[in-house]
Specification:
This protein is of the alpha+beta class. The chain has 14 helices and 5 strands. The protein has helices at 5-9, 28-38, 82-93, 100-107, 111-120, 131-140, 146-160, 180-183, 195-209, 221-229, 236-247, 258-263, 272-279, 286-296; strands at 14-19, 44-47, 50-57, 60-67, 72-77. It has a 5-stranded antiparallel sheet. Strand 3 (50-57) and strand 4 form a beta hairpin.
Amino acid sequence: MDSKAPARETARMYSSCFDLALPARYPAESVINFFARRAIPGVEHVAGLRYRRSFALDQVPGWFEADLATGSVSVRHPLSAATDLVQARVRALFDLDAPQAQIRRCFLRDARLGALLRVQRDIRVPGCWDGFELGVRAVLGQQITVAAARTIAARIIARHAQPIPGAAEGETCGRLFPPAQVFADADLDGLGLTGARIATLRALARALLCGELDFDPAQTLARFVARCTAVRGIGDWTAHYMAMRALRDADAFPAGDIVLRKVLRPGTTLSAKELEQASQAWRPFRAYAVLLLWAAG
C-alpha cells in the first residue's frame, strides 16, 4: 500500500446495497459452508448464510457482506465505483450464472453423476475474490487438510497483512490480504510452512509480477496450466484447481485428485489416467463434476 493510501482510507465511507437475484434452488447452504471452512480470520468472516470480507479498490480498503438468506449485498467503501466492482466479482464468487440446465442434461446421461445430482439438485463451483489470493490458498492447501491450510493462512495474515486504518472496533475483517509484492520477499519462516512451500509462494508472486503468469479468464485452459506448472512447486492438480475457481473454467479437471479417484467407483481407486478418460463424457462441465463428486466423498 503506498504512502498516500492511509489518507484516502480514512475518507468518508459510502454505503450501498444491491440484490443478487439468486437463482431458484440455489444451494446457498452448501456454497456458504465451502467458504466457511476456508475463511481466513482477519480477511473473511462467515456467520450463518452471511459472507463478509475486506477488499481494496485503487489501494483504498472497504468491505462487503453478502447475505445468501436474503440475496442481498451491502458495500461500504469510500469510492462509489466499488459497488460495480463488487457486483461483478460477487456473481463469479458465488457462481450465480452457472448454466444449470445444460449441466443437468450432461450429467443425467451418466449413471453415477445422475444419481448424485438427483440428491444434490444444484451444483456450483465457488469462485474467488482475487486470482493471486486463490493461488496462495491453493499452494497452502497442497498435501494438508483444509483446516491446516486455513491456520497457516491466518498466521500469514497476522504477520504480513496491514491493518485497515479506521476500521471499527470489533471489525472481523480488519486486514487486507497481502498483494504479490509482499509475498515475493516475505518472511514466512516459523509459520508452519516447509522451505519448499515458501519457495513456491515466492515463485508464484514473482511470476505474476513479471508477467509470466496471469489470471485472465480469456486464456485457454492449456495455456494457463502450462504457465502454472512452469512455476516451481505447482503441479497439475494445483493448476487445475486454480483454473476452476480463479479463471472460472468450467472444464478444468484435477484428474490426480485422490478423492475423485476413489469416489467415482466406490471400492476402487482409479488411476489419474482412468479418471481422465471417464471424465471425457462430462465435458465441457468437468469442474462441476468435481464439486459433485467431492460432495459425495
